[in-house]
Amino acid sequence: MARVERDSAPIPASKQFAAVAWLRWRLFANGFRRKGGTGELVARIIVFPIGTLFVVGPVAGASVSAYFATSTGHLDILTGIFWGIFVLQVLVSINISPPGLSFDPESLIRYPLAFPRYLTIRLFLGLLSPSTIIGTCALLGAAAAIAFANPSLAGIAFAVAIPLALCNMFFVRMVFAWVDRWLSTRRAREIFTVLIFAFSLGVQYVNATFNGFGRHSNHAERKAKIDSLLHVYHLIEPYARVLPPSLAGLAIRRVHTSAAISVALIGGILLFAALFLGIFAWRMHREYRGESLSEAARIPKQTARVAHANRSPIAIEAGSRTSRPAVLSPVLAALFEKEWIYVRRNPAQFYGFIAPLAMLFIFAGRLGSLAKTGYIFPAAVAYSVLGLAALAYNILGLDANGVQFYFMAPIPMRTVILAKNLFSFSITALQLVLVYAVVSFSSQPPPLLIVIASVCWVVLACLVNATVGNMRSIIAPKKMDPSKISRKQTSQLSGLICIGIILALGSVGAGTFALSRIASLPWLPIPILGALALGAFALYITGLNKVDSLALNNREALVEELSKAS
Amino acid sequence: MTPAVHTTSLTRRFGDFTAVNNVNLTVASGQFFGFLGPNGAGKSTTIKMLTGLLAPTSGSIEVLGEDLTANTVDLKRQIGVVPEGLALFGRLTAPEYLRFVGRMYGLDDITTAQRSEELLDFMSLASENKKLITDFSHGMQKKLALAAAVIHGPKILFLDEPFEGVDAIAAGTLKAMLQGMIARGATIFLTSHVLEIVERLCTHVAIIQKGTLVAQGSLEELRAGVEAQHLDAQGTQKATLEEIFLNVLGTTGTPAPEQELSWLG
What we know:
heterodimer; A: about 575 residues; mainly alpha; 2 domains; 22 helices; B: about 260 residues; alpha/beta; six-stranded mixed beta sheet; four-stranded antiparallel beta sheet; 10 strands
């Protein structure tokens, strides 16, 4: 047995780093021992080349533009390229989450780990995120292109690109560390979602106003647009000039006239990098000191409790009956109500529901020919419905360890899943009605045949997504944490399957409508999509009937995944 | 003699809720110390602060005579913790987990391997070497968490509900191990709702209620205090820890007639 002894020799940093690296590796490797592990491995293998394409595009774009700018002597364009890479890196980090870690790195504070080591580990865990890879490769590609176009700039190009890459990376890490902190309370998440929502709509509104989809602008309009763009540029430029991408561009431009200034400018970039790292380190230090992030730690105030003992069972029954939709059984109604509460408290889902409608409101009147033919309706419906499709592939994700209740409660899992599906179908139906209202209000009511065909397609899409989604939700669940926006919230393979099905459904819909147009048979999509929807319904019922045995077979993995701490 | 743990005005707030309020706690070296309190009283929050997992809002903590905030890393090497949620890495096997923990505490690979083997044997987990921790029963996970907490030979062991969900055989193994540690000079700080076990193992206890320390001392001292107040009417039987606990908290443990759930059963 272990003896109690004091060991005062310092623990080598390399030993602890190696231990964490080894932990990461073992967790990764052992992950494939679980059910569905092989599928996840296959998904990663498939995703890898697709991910590579995402990297190749920006790298090629940045390199070609940098080569063009340098070879034609327009070095001022380099500043724009660096800004573009920075914005891309930020956007990618918002839109593509890195694969979630299989453990909560914060748990490492239990061990005798000095803060600099903890910071280093936190910095390196998640370093190979898509945003960092794309941003860094694009910057290095741009630097290589500059060097190729003008070898005398090779030194400065790389001397600028490396600190700028660090700077961008620290910036993104810093922002996400703090955003995750702020989002640890539900109220903050709601405010953040409203802000993101307002910002996205604002950007889309400006874009739509500026570009005017489907309309050809005349010379005067184009000039006015360019003038307004220049106006915005001149407003921003004095502030942007002192920021890292501009400093990087200037450092390259000034290297031949004053190398000292270029060195100073690189120093400026490094200062920014140090600042961002410092703010990131500040957050990590608070975490290291044991700041509790979870809002679960915020024990709610004692609220006045109703003396249940004084209420008769009849009174309780009557009280709960009033809040229950009469069309559903008590169990389904209870599950339905729970789903509603969850959606209400999950701004991301709310955003997914409202955002397409708002976008549609902005664009519907500007889509010219598409609006006139009525095909805007199926397009808008597809846009709205498919936006929510991913949620169908992890319907138990938000239940966390509450999923155990479903196994303990005297209800079949089939009922739980059915309630969840019915809830999402209701949301979709509501969305369909709203889309119809928005399209009718913004342009004109779509023709009846197109509306019926679109409804058939929606039924088909909902049933297919629900059938496959139900299975994936049970076989490959992923605990969703609404407070961690920087972590992936679905299984890799489920995400891939979802994309595949979305593409297939979109193609079927578009193909059918195209066929009807070519054949001048406007009614044609109705029997085709209707028949497919009927087939999908049969498939859905078959799948639903298998849910119980599937859930039972996967119960341990399901509970384990959804009950884990992070 | 330097106390193993000493806190001064230890306070932790979450927003406007005070989970731990001005706690002054002293645990002498070599003591088997029981930290008791009803659910939500602040026991786990206190343990988290004492082990450096949660920063206090105010107050100070000394562990083995040194300030915990100033010497966190060194002191963490001297303590072992079995936290409330066990905090195991579910997708490792037991030997893998112990190997990781040993390395994090700076043990060389040979010592880690040797101690892992001994600990897994002692905890009757040696036959489960290939299984992932996530597939362990709760009791097995608890034993593994305890093995990980002692692999580096800590001077102080903090245990949050170590006997919860553990069968009688495993509980016996754990008790034997803990008593062995005490015999060799270690200090053990444990929280438990199983008052019989605390009574049997601990020499000293403290009771916390709504974040405030309401009693602290040896079992005999607390017993004498309580008996002097209420329980010594007949003077024949010693007060049990449960009686002491309920008395200190000012409750009988029996619901009032109007609180009875008359509809139940």
